[in-house]
Amino acid sequence: MTSKKLVNSVAGCADDALAGLVACNPNLHLLQGHRVALRSDLDSLKGRVALLSGGGSGHEPAHAGFIGKGMLTGVIAGAVFTSPAVGSILAAIRAVAQAGTVGTLLIVKNYTGDRLNFGLAREQARAEGIPVEMVVIGDDSAFTVLKKAGRRGLCGTVLIHKVAGALAEAGVGLEEITNRVSVVAKAMGTLGVSLASCSVPGSKPTFELSADEVELGLGIHGEAGVHRIKMATADKIVAIMLDHMTNSSNVSHVPVQSGSSVVLMVNNLGGLSFLELGIIADAAVRSLEGRGVKIARALVGTFMSALEMPGISLTLLLVDEPLLKLIDADTTASAWPNMAKVSVTGRTRIRAAPTEPLEAPDSTATGGTDSKQMVLVLERVCTTLLGLEEHLNALDRAAGDGDCGTTHSRAARAIQGWLKEGPPPASPAQLLSKLSLLLLEKMGGSSGALYGLFLTAAAQPLKAKTDLPAWSAAMDAGLEAMQKYGKAAPGDRTMLDSLWAAGQELQAWKSPGANLFQILTKAVKSAEAAAEATRNMEAGAGRASYISSGRLDQPDPGAVAAAAILRAILEALQGQGA
């Protein structure tokens, strides 16, 4: 089936994309009658070398995103994955020449169509007396044996744009720029990996992968790679990529070894999430540093994509200090990252955690028996939540991500781990405060924040007294905090419904002679009834409030979990005869 794309028309998508970029960037102009973008300050380049690049569309932000002072002068764009027309390339060369530049360098990725079309335009321009040179960039490290066509041009081309742009901005001549970037291009390599293919507008995906496969060594036009490997962790995939790129038996390898200094590019091929991109970047840094490689600079982002391809490429460029100065040189190109001009390797990445404030003495601490009793209560709560994990997840799927059970199980395991470290505080106030911090740190999600708020507020009335009226006041304080910051109210189909129902029953603890178990039993039954009643409520808060009420035919998982916690507390206390 043809993939969905947000375009006006298949035929006009490349023109529209370039027009959109220029419309939003006052530093760019379109060349009339051509799919060409140029610096809007072209006349300021008199006496300098112009840099032109380009290729098929679909690689955004390449190539037009790298137009600017200190990088490219202009870009010629073809249709999606199609080399640009010779006439447009020649028009761009003429435009920069007529603006007073002293020569033009064409930076071309190594693909047959690009070589032919840029090469033909170069010959025509030279016949007109315009000084034009061309460098063909092939940084692909996928192929282990030499191919007649040579190495494909990939994301490393962007680094050549940067180096050439810095040289041109410094007033270096055409011949020297050509020679220097040709040397730099031989000291880098790029390798891509993808979880799936991409699809040209109006077409189907270019290749298919099974659920447990990834494509290694693919290009940027949706073409298949050199190997299909089994799906693995990010660490393993990155290790495979770096092994392949640096293996000396690979004819297209990068000669990176222990002690080498490199620029690392982690490039999103278009459809990878930023979360995954960060994980890949971390894996790449750790793996390279583990091999004794110094990462002088790291660029992470989308630089040269393949439409919506969910994959990444890694580029390694061997560098020394003079080359780093060119990489660090200022540029106004919109797609070049605001990169720190310091080494990645060798710097401290961790700041010490702040010290915990000293705990004030608590007059309500009783020690021994009560502490053991609380351990048994907490253990019962944890066992209950772990047993409900799948049930709560199933209830939560109706309202979104289906992780309510996982979140509560994470809290339970965190509490279990904490209990193994030593006895909990004997003071109820300190116990609730510690639990609050633990859940805020380990539980995650809105549930962690809400429980943390509840416990923090509930701890305050227990600092002075721990009798039944104080526990009722603690429940009141917790509920008030949840409503204040969570913005939920009773009847909104949230965990608050169960807790609120229980809190109303626990008001009876404030009466003289109140019976602990009778009132707590009534509170638990009210909480369970309230949880079940959420089945018929329309959600007024939380993620479920965005879901049609017709689809919410199960009780709220947060309310069910809260009622289950109260039931576990009751049964644990009854089991001890407390």
From TrEMBL:
Domain DhaK spans what residues? 9-336
Q: Which UniProt keywords apply?
A: ATP-binding, Cobalt, FAD, Flavoprotein, Kinase, Lyase, Magnesium, Manganese, Metal-binding, Multifunctional enzyme, Nucleotide-binding, Phosphoprotein, Transferase
Write one Gene Ontology MF term: triokinase activity
UniProt KW Transferase keyword: yes
Q: Which organism is it from?
A: Camelus dromedarius
Q: According to its UniProt record, which reaction does this protein catalyse?
A: dihydroxyacetone + ATP = dihydroxyacetone phosphate + ADP + H(+); D-glyceraldehyde + ATP = D-glyceraldehyde 3-phosphate + ADP + H(+); FAD = riboflavin cyclic-4',5'-phosphate + AMP + H(+)
Q: Which SUPFAM superfamilies match?
A: DAK1/DegV-like, DhaL-like
Q: What are the BP-aspect GO terms?
A: carbohydrate phosphorylation; fructose catabolic process to hydroxyacetone phosphate and glyceraldehyde-3-phosphate; glycerol catabolic process; negative regulation of MDA-5 signaling pathway
Q: Which Pfam families match?
A: Dak1 (PF02733), Dak2 (PF02734)
Report domain DhaL positions. Answer: 372-571
Question: What lineage does the source organism belong to?
Answer: Eukaryota, Metazoa, Chordata, Craniata, Vertebrata
Entry's Gene Ontology cellular component terms: cytosol
**Region annotation Disordered: where it falls in the sequence:** 348-369
What is the annotated quaternary arrangement, including any partners?
Homodimer. Interacts with IFIH1 (via the CARD domains), the interaction is inhibited by viral infection.
- Please identify the protein, giving its name as recorded: Triokinase/FMN cyclase
Q: Which PROSITE patterns match?
A: DHAK (PS51481), DHAL (PS51480)
Classify the source by domain of life.
Eukaryota
Q: What is its EC number?
A: 2.7.1.28, 2.7.1.29, 4.6.1.15
Name the residues that bind substrate. Answer: G56, S57, G58, H59, K109, D114
Q: Does the keyword Protease apply?
A: no
- List the cofactors: Co(2+); Mn(2+); Mg(2+)
What does the UniProt function comment say about this protein? Catalyzes both the phosphorylation of dihydroxyacetone and of glyceraldehyde, and the splitting of ribonucleoside diphosphate-X compounds among which FAD is the best substrate. Represses IFIH1-mediated cellular antiviral response.
